[in-house]
Amino acid sequence: MTPLFKKWLAAAVLLLATTITMAQSFDLPQLAEQLSGPAVVRGDFIQDKHLRALPQPLTSHGQFTLSRDHGLLWLLQQPIRQDYRITPQGIARRGEQGWQAVDPQGGSARQNQLFLAVLSGDTQALQRDFDLQLKGDPDAWRLQLTPRGALLKQIFADIEIQGGETVTRIELHETQGDRTLIRLLDSQTDLALTASEQRDLAD
């Protein structure tokens, strides 16, 4: 083995070791810190609900606002207009009389609570109900959630979240074969809520 080849081999081994170390250095606490960093995240969403009984997905569009300290506004615009508020205290829907609480035990309510935990980077809350497997780096990561408890296993087969600085994609696979894909588009971070958002989340 020539001295030149030894130097090349040593450099290659060092590069490989550095790459492996960098790949392994991004863990769940770092993901949680990254996602909980921005005070406010706003953007658009497209949700495709794939039902076994239908040949085409049910598609809805809207906007969302995530506040690190207050919760999530999920504003559906198409095919119908409907506003939801998701906070640690519960889930509410805007009606003629203002915000009204929805059934906290329903499947949709459970999904919405999961959205809040996922978007806010609350991996500790997620770990109470799921086994988490994280791959990637801060700029492009993928988090796989596998339910632990019997109740969640009746609803979800697994959940996959992808993102970078913020979450960009959530895909929920239900045990009965239905699938929901949510794409979060054009997300922008901000330092504070607008006056309208403050009223909605404080109401």
Automatic annotation (TrEMBL):
<dbReference type="InterPro" id="IPR029046">
    <property type="entry name" value="LolA/LolB/LppX"/>
</dbReference>
<dbReference type="GO" id="GO:0015031">
    <property type="term" value="P:protein transport"/>
</dbReference>
<protein>
    <submittedName>
        <fullName>Outer membrane lipoprotein carrier protein LolA</fullName>
    </submittedName>
</protein>
<comment type="subunit">
    <text>Monomer.</text>
</comment>
<keyword id="KW-0813">Transport</keyword>
<keyword id="KW-0732">Signal</keyword>
<dbReference type="InterPro" id="IPR004564">
    <property type="entry name" value="OM_lipoprot_carrier_LolA-like"/>
</dbReference>
<dbReference type="Pfam" id="PF19574">
    <property type="entry name" value="LolA_3"/>
</dbReference>
<keyword id="KW-0653">Protein transport</keyword>
<feature type="signal peptide">
    <location>
        <begin position="1"/>
        <end position="23"/>
    </location>
</feature>
<keyword id="KW-0449">Lipoprotein</keyword>
